[in-house]
Design goal:
The chain is an all-alpha fold. It is built from twelve helices and no strands.
Length: 335
């Protein structure tokens, strides 16, 4: 397993370099000018100097190499400096946002907690709900529990999140006034009352996203369980006199989790990508909203960095899913 993991990590390096090149070229060749929002009274020579200060006066291959150096060397050094109080990064040039003129990594670090609080918690809740629903629905196929679970799953997966979010706002925020309709990103938890308010403002966006995630994963879980419940090894285990709980939760569940692991693992990068639509509906100041704002403002360094981070996470969790295959199924051996 260790050899396979190291081999996959080595293969991931040229893959990520190729992805970074494609991202950089596509965004760099896209139409747009970072000086477009400047007042018309600014002289052209001043705009040209500002472009050169942003590094736009260099050839494209020089700018690409500088961006890679900043992303993989300079920014990690500054992150270590912020964590341990060192001075590894020094005065080295960082990736600067064209929109805010601030380091991109600092802006992303400010938004990550908001995204993890809402989108991350919603994903955990969705998985925790989906797995038992899928297991029980498959074991009690065509029962009233299965029918209700299927009905709710179809609604949660079919109805778009922006519609579900608006419905919840109308019911729980406007009519019942149980929860706030807008997420306050400046709120800090300092005591019990502030913690309760944090839970109240998280409730609706978490419910919307958890319903969507649970609907998808529960369908995969149910289908995988049904496929394994009909296998010969299940009849053999029952014929040996094993208890039904042991047959279902030990033998069937472990084999059924193999395809579901792919869905869960590949869904983790979407947490860091943020739920763009839901964040817009509830005004959650997370990574999804940051990406949309950067695209509207033609902030190429921010868009490049966020997109490449998402690509790294996808490659990483593909590897995690493959490793989990070997843990769940002893027949799978990579070495």
């Amino acid at each position: 397993m260790l050899t396979y993991t190291l081999r996959r990590l080595l293969i991931a390096i040229p893959t990520l370099l190729f992805i970074s090149l494609i991202i950089f070229l596509l965004l760099d060749l896209a139409p747009g000018d970072p000086m477009a929002q400047m007042p018309l009274t600014v002289p052209p020579e001043v705009k040209q100097k500002m472009r050169e200060a942003l590094g736009l006066g260099e050839p494209i291959h020089i700018r690409y190499a500088l961006w890679l150096k900043q992303f993989f060397i300079i920014e990690p050094m500054h992150i270590l400096d912020a964590m341990f109080g060192t001075n590894l990064g020094g005065d080295a040039q960082r990736i600067i946002s064209w929109q805010t003129r601030s380091p991109v990594a600092d802006i992303i670090a400010q938004r990550v907690p908001q995204t993890l609080w809402v989108v991350g918690l919603a994903y955990v809740v969705g998985v925790a709900i989906a797995l038992p629903i899928g297991i029980i629905s498959a074991y009690k196929q065509y029962s009233w529990f299965d029918q209700i679970g299927t009905f709710i799953s179809m609604i949660g997966f079919s109805v778009p999140t922006f519609f579900t979010g608006v419905v919840l706002i109308i019911i729980f925020a406007v009519n019942l006034q149980w929860f706030p309709s807008i997420y306050d990103t400046t709120h800090k938890v300092t005591g019990w009352d502030s913690f309760v308010f944090q839970l109240r403002q998280m409730a609706m966006p978490v419910m919307v996203l958890a319903l969507y995630n649970a609907s998808q994963i529960s369908r995969f879980m149910r289908a995988s369980m049904l496929d394994n419940l009909r296998q010969d090894y299940v009849r053999t285990a029952r014929a040996k006199g094993l208890r039904e709980r042991v047959v279902v939760l030990t033998h069937v569940l472990r084999n059924s989790m193999i395809p579901v692991v792919t869905v869960i693992a590949l869904g983790v990068p979407t947490i860091f990508g943020g739920a763009i639509i839901t964040e817009q509906v509830f005004k959650v100041n997370g990574l999804g909203q940051l990406l949309i704002t950067a695209i509207h403002a033609n902030d190429l360094p921010m868009v490049q960095t966020l997109t490449f981070i998402f690509a790294i996470l996808i490659v990483l969790f593909n590897l995690v899913a493959d490793i989990l295959y070997g843990i769940l199924d002893p027949r799978i051996r990579y070495d």
